[in-house]
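ok so I'm stuck.
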Amino acid sequence: MTIAVGDKLPDLKLKETTPDGPAEVSTGDIFKGKRVVLFAVPGAFTPTCSLNHLPGYLENRDAILAKGVDDIVVVAVNDAFVMTAWAKESGGAGKLRFLADGSAAFAKALGLDIDLTAAGLGVRSKRYSMLVEDGVVKNLNIEESPGQATVSAAAAMIGQL
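replied:
not stuck anymore, here's the structure
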């Protein structure tokens, strides 16, 4: 079953790189008492993710935060090392939180996983964005195709804030 507006996010562990290396972070801690924009991509360094989806959030970061958002989080089914490299390469390090869902446990718990095995990618996350307030989904925008980033794009999110 797919998560819906009004649902509380499950409390799961993701990985984030810290100065001491990869560390587990709890989704409960990430979203508790905060207004957070979360967007998910099928994979770091993939074309739509790197050329369209992520750059839109980086370019519109200040406009999103100015709307009362505390943090912007990007999640992908990659390991923490890949997410760190993507953060550095994209210029997003220190601007957004790059979280790794290495085994797709978060994507599966939300019902937002997609099997891209035929494309050589295995199980990944669907492309989506959501506004989360104190752990509760307020807006949810799911792309119909992993190669599109329109309804989950930063510009669409700004219009919903």
